[in-house]
Design goal:
The termini are far apart. Strand 3 and strand 4 form a beta hairpin. By secondary structure, this protein is of the alpha+beta class. A 5-stranded mixed sheet has the order 1-2-5-3-4. It has a single domain, classed as Ribosomal Protein S5, domain 2 (2-Layer Sandwich), CATH 3.30.230.10.
Length: 129
């Protein structure tokens, strides 16, 4: 099999390296099947979203290495990486992926905790007396 595409996806603190080859639709995440790796069907669906948009579910074998963050962030990183790799493989995919917002990096990060407060926004309980 020929290695035909590569993409890097990021979400929160997760980073996914995605390798695409011609194949029958096998999807491996960290040497496990995607349904085995992710805990919920929603996470699997999020990761597979670019394949559904481009109708490429049975065209390619995809190998993903993902590190950092939790499972939801990793699913988002996988989705971003797959979208970038599909756009690289076939330029005709680019428009549909862009229209569905799959090529855009989700830049939302956890807001830092501030000193003198309980959390990022939450204050300590206020007492008048």
């Amino acid at each position: 099999m020929k290695n035909i595409g590569m993409g890097t996806g990021r979400r929160k603190t997760s980073v996914a390296r995605v390798y695409i080859r011609d194949g029958k639709g096998q999807l491996m995440v960290n040497d496990k099947d995607i349904n085995e790796y992710f805990a919920t069907p929603e996470q699997v669906q999020k990761a597979k979203e670019p394949l559904m948009v481009t109708a490429g579910e049975s065209k390619y074998d995809i190998i993903i290495t993902v590190r950092g963050g939790g499972l939801t962030g990793q699913a988002g990183a996988c989705s971003h990486g797959i979208a970038r790799a599909l756009a690289q493989v076939d330029a005709s995919n680019h428009a549909s992926l862009k229209a569905n917002g799959l090529l855009t990096r989700d830049s939302r990060m956890v807001e830092r905790k501030k000193f003198g407060q309980r959390g990022a926004r939450r204050r300590f309980q206020f007492s008048k007396r």
